[in-house]
Amino acid sequence: MFPSKRFTMTTYLSPEEVLKKLSEVVTPTSNPIQFRWRRSKKPYQGQIAEHSFKIYRVIYNRNSFLPEIEGQIQAHGRGSQIKIEIKLHPFVIIFMSLWLIMLAVVALMILGEGLFKEIFNLAFLMPMGMLILGLALPRIAFFPEAKKSQKFLLELFQGQEDN
Q: How far apart are CA 143 and CA 91, in angstroms?
């Protein structure tokens, strides 16, 4: 229902080199909710562990649908294999789910009343329009950001996507 993207990439870089490259472009954060008083010189923020990372792109405007990027790094031959999942923040998924359920209930109540009275109620169009917008908006905002991050990571690790 909500957008996400998974892919695996292979690179000739060792897991240690992958982590080093990642640390060059990620500002470490300990608190996911931070006020940015100064601009970061690195394009991503997040946490890097021994064999994994959880990052998001630094932007200076609001985008609730900004993807989180989680990656698992493992040795693969002479290089590394990186499994990446790009997804929405869990809070956004919970909020949007509740909002969409509420809109669906209102739309069904209006539709039920119209069917019971055998008339079409124009009020039905408003929650239906909001429902459609609520389903479309996360995709419209998510996929361009996900594509930017995927391209950035492929270039950063000099990797290629596995099929």
A: 18
